[in-house]
Amino acid sequence: MESIVEFVNGIIWSNALIFMCLGAGLWFTLRTRFMQIRGFAEMCRLTVRGQKSDAGVSSFQALAMSMAGRMGIGNIAGVATAIAYGGPGAIFWMWVMGFLGASTSYVESTLAQIYKTKDAEGRYRGGPAYYIEKAMGLKWYAATFAVATVIAAGFLLPGVQANAIADSAVNVLCTGADACASLGGAASMKLWIGIAVAALLGVIIFGGVKRIASFAEVIVPFMALGFILMAIVVMMLNASKVPTMFADIFSSAFGAHAAFGGI
């Protein structure tokens, strides 16, 4: 099984995918005339003043749900893995990919708005599977994408997140030999944490997109603020090393390992 996973992973995360992501981001950035810069002020205005909709969600709720999918394990473990593989220069390429990827995200979101549909209950449905079918006419590809998304978002990603939460809790609470004995040991504690996370997740997602949006607009701002504050605190505590940090990032950015690690 491990060899199969490594084989598939080698195909998916090949050099071709990396160049395609960079190329698509650069192409969309040029074609939209740097929309991520030109439209930044308008984005902020709509985020604050956007109205709620009975058939959909408000602009701020949409932003909160989008941010919820981008913050988490990837922001911590993913960045650490990139630096471990590519060195400090990988951070530069994460900046580049974040900038170019903003235009790709803009195009994806625009297509989702254009090709969204209303269901029988009057609520909007949309996303990549919809515009792949309606715009490209590739129904089989849309179905494949939808199935892959259900598997990834419904089973794989929550498992990674729940496991990270359980590991963190065990590392903090089970510091002594008998610290978790009353709970049945570390393995049992992980199981109960996983069950609790699954139950909480079920309460949220089975309420539909409205409940997800309502939950996200309350929780996500605190998550984002927490990330920013932690970064500021770390930089302040190591203020004397910040200039050296930036020097290392730029001086080691233009190597193959740095580029592939960051992207």
UniProtKB/TrEMBL annotation:
Keyword Cell membrane carried by entry: yes
Subcellular location, record wording: Cell membrane
Pfam families, A to Z: Na_Ala_symp
Keywords: Cell membrane, Membrane, Transmembrane, Transmembrane helix, Transport
Regions crossing the membrane: 12-30, 73-96, 140-160, 191-209, 215-237
GO cellular component, one term: plasma membrane
GO MF terms held by the record: amino acid:sodium symporter activity
Membrane topology of the entry: Multi-pass membrane protein
InterPro entries associated with the record: Na/Ala_symport
Family: Belongs to the alanine or glycine:cation symporter (AGCS) (TC 2.A.25) family.
Protein name, per record: Sodium:alanine symporter family protein
Species: Stenotrophomonas nitritireducens
Lineage, uppermost ranks: Bacteria, Pseudomonadati, Pseudomonadota, Gammaproteobacteria, Lysobacterales
